[in-house]
Amino acid sequence: MVEDSLSSNAEFLSGWEMVVGLEVHCELKTRTKLFCGCMNAFGQEPNTSICPVCLGLPGSLPVINEHAVELAIRIGLALNCRVDESIFHRKNYFYPDMPKDYQISQYEKAINENGYLELPLSKKRVRIERAHIEEDTGKTTHVGGDGGRIHGAVHSLVDYNRAGIPLVEIVSAPDLRSAEEAREYVSELRSILVASGASDGKMEEGSLRVDANVSVRRSGSREFGTRCEIKNLNSLRSLGRAIAYEAERQVELIESGQVVVQQTRHWNEDQGVTTAMRSKEEAYDYRYFPEPDLVPLCPSKEWVSEIGSRIGLLPADRRKRLTSLFEGVESGSTFDQIVTVVGLGLDELVVGAVEGGADPRLALARAANEVAANMVNQANLSVEAFGELIKMESAGQLSATQAKTVLGKMLESGYRPQEVAASLGFEALDTAVLEALIDQVISTSPKEWERFSSGEDQLTGFFVGQVMKLSKGRADGKVVTAALHSRRA
Ligand code: ADP
Ligand code: MG
Ligand code: ZN
Description:
The protein is built from 15 helices and 14 strands. It has 489 residues and is an alpha+beta fold. It has a nine-stranded mixed sheet, covered by helices on one side. A three-stranded antiparallel sheet has the order 4-3-14, with no helix packed on it. A two-stranded antiparallel sheet has the order 7-8. Helix 3 links the parallel strand 11 (228-233) and strand 12 (263-268). The radius of gyration is 28 Å and the shape is elongated. The site of adenosine-5'-diphosphate (ADP) has 14 residues, from strand 1, strand 9 and strand 10.
């Protein structure tokens, strides 16, 4: 991950352990909504993708979207769940962004139950309690208040385009023990959802939204503490920060003789704190009852197994495929890079380049670092062009510094590496020019050269650095080192 690291369990307040369970809402990548033919699209003009069904007008009736059910089943299978018969319920509550004043969801019998997900780095198995189908709500925008919150707002706007978009809510068991594990879980879950074709995984567009349940207990204790639920975390960074803050808040409360009150809390990104939204006493009574307008959902065994056979390679398989290009990398920095590359869906790029003859280690490193840092432009990079660049670097036609620059420009422009290198004047330094640069460096640092010549190897870096500087990064470090050593002999 190209992100700051957060307090791991080891650094958490000594004598305490945190317990985290996550509820992840995933928008399904269908063409239309869950119960009507309106488009499922992000960023449309407000209230243009609506109809009597998703507006809940009297007399309208829902019809289940088969593709949404198929994607939900893919999620269940990818998460090792038991996929079975299920029914829909009405979850009743009054809120302006929900036009029907109830949400159609699954309550007692979810389509997917009792699965698990394995974390790639810690190899820990996190149980999935359920992954059920429900419809999304609309969106309210509060205008004129403080930070977009309803409190103090002058007026509020409602957009129903999102109402009725199919969601799968994935509920984990309380198996996570640190903010880092929670982030790893969401990151892996996101990769699985994208790889299974169920979701685009875009947290920044709200396709993936996380509620975090957090409690703390004394180390060694077997009982769970009272939990708080932090709503709507929409980035891995917020997730990690919110959990770490909330767990420390609870420890401080208990250590100062107070108690944790079961609450729903809001994460304030700017202030880095969670604040109370509502407590258990104010919790909604949802008055669930079976949805009378929909029949039970009974996918046949044949259909489920046919769906299973069409799921492509999942992240775990993709990591195996990449790992097989190297020797003995079940952990360590190469494995970390493999996890990053698969997590970002860059593994095809690396595998393709290697199949075309590129060096695996170099291809992996460039993908995990330079390409990963420029994901917005990733579509500009073809497997072939990436492979050519790696081969140019391996062959010494480009120094490491030059290769990184060329790759950056390729990502921005979509040009081939040869074109970019030529336009930047990055031709490999010919030997005569390099030797001349070395002469120049030796003449400006005669004392250092004498020491280096008499065997002080620690000065290698100094001389390579000087030559690199003079060549403005065009020289290849390995070639310079070899030239320096042959001069000394
Ligand atoms: P609810 O029905 O109130 O949503 P659930 O039992 O479905 O409660 O749990 C919701 C989420 O809370 C699950 O992800 C679960 O893992 C998590 N959870 C339950 N108890 C705790 C606890 N003591 N600490 C942290 N998370 C918990
Ligand atoms: Mg819940
Ligand atoms: Zn509609």
